[in-house]
Amino acid sequence: xxxxxxxxxxxxxxxxxxxxxxxxxxxxxxxxxxxxxxxxxxxxxxxxxxxxxxxxxxxxxxxxxxxxxxxxxxxxxxxxxxxxxxxxxxxxxxxxxxxxxxxxxxxxxxxxxxxxxxxxxxxxxxxxxxxxxxx
Length: 135
What we know:
Layout: E1 2-4, H1 28-37, E2 40-46, E3 51-60, E4 65-73, H2 82-93, E5 99-101, H3 109-114
Parallel strand pairs: 4-5
Antiparallel strand pairs: 1-2, 2-3, 3-4
């Protein structure tokens, strides 16, 4: 397993199989664009297949706040500590930031709680018509 904090050498053909159960998933091209445009990214690569098997992104003002919009591990690689390692590495990348926020479904609260995060209230707005991105 290789973990990288860069999208160099990542191509769209390495990004198949993500966004499971999304009604309008982003294409691999849009996926690569969102990775490239994030302020911080950690990517997990299976060193045997050279396939991206997980990723986490953060968007930040670089001063006080950061938001983690995506953490995803391919289904066949789940429960192997990859997500935990991605979060751990991202929290290290963001160690100088005052507040690090993310939103998650109720069934994931205990997962993030075990990783040191605290449950809070939040509000979201979703525009599913543009869920797949612009590409």
